[in-house]
Write a structure and sequence with these properties.
Blueprint lengths: L4 H11 L9 H21 L4 H24 L2
Helix pairs in contact: 1-2, 2-3
Length: 75
C-alpha cells in the first residue's frame, strides 16, 4: 500500500517549483493525493480493513489542513 519509487517521483515532478524541491506544501499535497487514491482503491477491495481506513481519514485531514494553509498564505 505504499507508493512505488516511480509514482513518488512523478508526483514530486508534477508539483515541484524547482529542481531540488521535494518538501514544499504543494509537493506534500501531491504525494498525499497519490497515497489517498491508492489506499481508497485498497479499501474498495477490503471493506473491513478498519486500520487502513483510519489511516486514510488521517491523511485526508492532513491534506485538508495543508490546502487551507495554501489558501491562507499563498496566492
Amino acid at each position: 500500500m505504499t507508493l512505488s519509487k516511480q509514482d513518488k517521483e512523478s508526483a514530486i515532478k508534477e508539483r515541484q517549483k524547482h529542481a531540488r524541491d521535494t518538501g514544499s506544501v504543494d509537493v506534500q499535497v501531491g504525494l498525499l493525493d497519490k497515497r489517498i487514491d491508492e489506499l481508497s482503491g485498497h479499501l474498495k477491495d477490503h471493506p473491513k480493513d478498519h486500520h487502513s481506513r483510519r489511516g486514510l481519514l488521517m491523511m485526508i485531514g492532513k491534506r485538508r489542513r495543508l490546502k487551507q494553509y495554501l489558501e491562507r498564505n499563498h496566492v
